[in-house]
């Protein structure tokens, strides 16, 4: 007889907490709750209550559970949770989720596509995609996700849960998780979240004595005072306040007739204490005895497989025919022992995980081992190939049967397959299980795989420590070849982490093991890794085949490849190779060898390195290497490497021509792949593209979309670049205050210690200084960028070194044609952004050399080349107009009028004013703009502030002196004094400090 309570007893505080959380989520205030307690304490009943209440509010509910079978299945609870929702409601069709379909394909089968699965590169990408999905599902009424038994879940799920609870504060999402207080990653997460105040943790203790009596009454449909005292005493002592144990023990009393209902109420039979089951095991043993033998055998076999089991596997183990199997399963369901698993039609689950444990414990140790051995043998010899789950199940059964070595082999193979699929955390768990169990002859191989799994999972220190502890192997043996491959893989991981010394040690260890004549494939891999190593700070080539010293790692992703486009987002760094021809030849041979040996990843790494090395030859040579990388990655279905190649090629195409169409195609490919981190990198490039092309709204939309998301996922490289793009946009719009604010955020994000410093100094600050008509400060910024590059050799092609700086030096009479030609001959000189400034500089020199026709031809070329860059175009016209007027060539008056009209319309008053002053000096008429009233805020306009006075007012937040204002607006200091006096009078401010403070407040409001 079943004895279960129809109501929850003794958990009023927990229910109140859940109710409060649901109310908060309905107000779009996210909540994360964890219920912590022993098995059977009532966590699942509360989860069910939460689901019931959420349904009542019209919330989508997603419910999943970790497997308690001991199997490591990456993301199992999350996939089950999504399936529980989509099975009934269908998958969401919101267009805004389309970019996240590839990242979520691992969890949602309907979103998987043919060919390469394109799984996300990191758990963080999947977690961000899940957060977006939950936000969409909760848009109307909120969303609830319930994950149970997190103590049994995989490390990948724990990482996703941590990310979600850290970022749901402002989203309509309730996360509720349950777990036992068992040491492990899940408990560590819960304790950490509690300390950080990102989650509420409720530790559920046993029921008090009065609650035990109330629960017993609820189970028996009787008033608490009707419960016989002897029954209550026994249940209170035996169950110790655990609701599940109480219900099981109560059912045993009912089944054995020691508690029965009479006309006078419930009565207990008087029996010696010894006849009462002393624990849950004896209780279940008695219940088994009352079942038919086939049903009992089926339940024992099922319990051996775990608290959840597959019907197919159970049939393999028991040998029952279909009809008999399902007859016995139905009997077990009717007995209240098991139930169908709602998440999977082929699976059943025990009513409680303790049930399976109790059934197995009811057997003698020898009988348990024999049953596990038979089950393992039946599964292994079923004729069906074993997947990762099957291997883990066989390993667990082998371990229960006492076969440690056999279990280790299965755990290790499952771990290696997990590693190959990219589930690094789960691979580490399985290989760590295998390592202490392995036979002496197998232990080193398991340790080698574990070292690689740790390295790829981010624990490079642990991986290197494990590699250092490996026993020695004979040089140039089969074991040495295997060990050498491991050292190469660890060296690559160390290079990606920019840990120069460790990478060099791993390369050297591989060389010692492989000898002077390693196999061709190994030698190619060594050359490539050593080539990248030589580009790290302070490194020197260890094999003599690398390209020299310096920096080569790019945007910080696992492939270590910057975009190579000269725009600063992960740009390749490093001085020119000591022997470029030798380095190029070695890496070229490595690439060809890798292709011949069937090592496409190594080949892609090599061609990527060649693209970097060939930059000094020009973009054509670099792009040829990237095109080969693209071809190999496409042929061998390496989607991430393919998108890497597309991004580099697209960025190069934009930088050479100003056309971003190929870069947009690369972003579409990254989005289709689900590579969210790479998509953020491309967004940074597109944002800077939009800035340089003067498309402010587009740039701001990209920055708003991606800057916060990149910070949330910890992608500092993309985040810094997006912040710099925002600062550069402010500078190119002449908004000094906004630029300073953005650069402060850039500095807080570590930008001053990044490779972006030259761009900050040149493309941002120096360009902004020119829009303030401060050429001295602009020149200082460009000199600062050049000095940084001299101390940190790099390929920063947009820092001004190859365009804007030569122009300013020519205008100042500090540079001759030789310096100009040197800049033009450099690879950076062919970029469209730089080329426009070099053509202006050349035109100025030709004008001085009395070649007006040649100068005008270059201005015509500049007119076409600068079309994509309106701010730079009009600034260039303003810069060269004075030289053209002085040397008598071109149309300086027309250029000044064009520039003045553009900058006045853009609100860049210093340049507009300077153009007007230059026109006056040229004797040209200057029309006054009296239509600027619309730019004056209403309170100031109603106070009578004029457009000219407002030009002064907008400069005051920086607290400049009258002389500075006069220079920037190209007016006299006396005129500034008159405007200041008028502003004080019209705004009612007491003094200049108060007026400046008021201007700052107005600037903040307008921003």
Summarize the structure in words.
With 1007 residues, the chain is mostly helical. It contains 47 helices and 10 strands. The strands form 3 sheets. Strands 2-3-4-1-5 form a 5-stranded parallel sheet, sandwiched between helices. It has a 3-stranded antiparallel sheet with strand order 8-10-9. The longest helix has 19 residues, at 478-496. The two termini are 71 Å apart.
Short synopsis of the structure:
This protein is mainly α.
Notable characteristics:
1007 residues, mainly alpha, 47 helices, five-stranded parallel beta sheet
Q: Secondary-structure blueprint of this entry?
A:
Blueprint: H1 12-26, E1 31-36, H2 43-56, E2 61-65, H3 76-89, H4 101-104, H5 123-137, E3 143-148, H6 155-166, E4 173-179, H7 185-195, E5 200-203, H8 209-220, H9 229-239, H10 243-255, E6 259-262, E7 265-268, H11 280-289, H12 293-305, E8 308-310, H13 311-318, H14 322-334, E9 338-340, E10 347-350, H15 353-361, H16 365-380, H17 388-400, H18 404-421, H19 424-437, H20 440-456, H21 460-468, H22 478-496, H23 500-514, H24 520-533, H25 580-596, H26 600-613, H27 619-635, H28 639-657, H29 661-673, H30 676-692, H31 696-712, H32 716-732, H33 736-748, H34 757-771, H35 775-791, H36 804-811, H37 817-825, H38 832-848, H39 852-865, H40 870-887, H41 892-905, H42 909-921, H43 938-942, H44 947-953, H45 962-969, H46 973-987, H47 992-1006
Parallel strand pairs: 1-4, 1-5, 2-3, 3-4
Antiparallel strand pairs: 6-7, 8-10, 9-10
Helix pairs in contact: 1-2, 5-6, 6-7, 8-10, 9-10, 10-11, 11-15, 12-14, 12-15, 13-16, 16-17, 17-18, 18-19, 18-20, 19-20, 20-21, 20-22, 21-22, 22-23, 22-24, 23-24, 24-25, 24-26, 25-26, 26-27, 27-28, 28-29, 28-30, 29-30, 30-31, 30-32, 31-32, 32-33, 32-34, 34-35, 35-36, 36-38, 37-38, 38-39, 38-40, ...
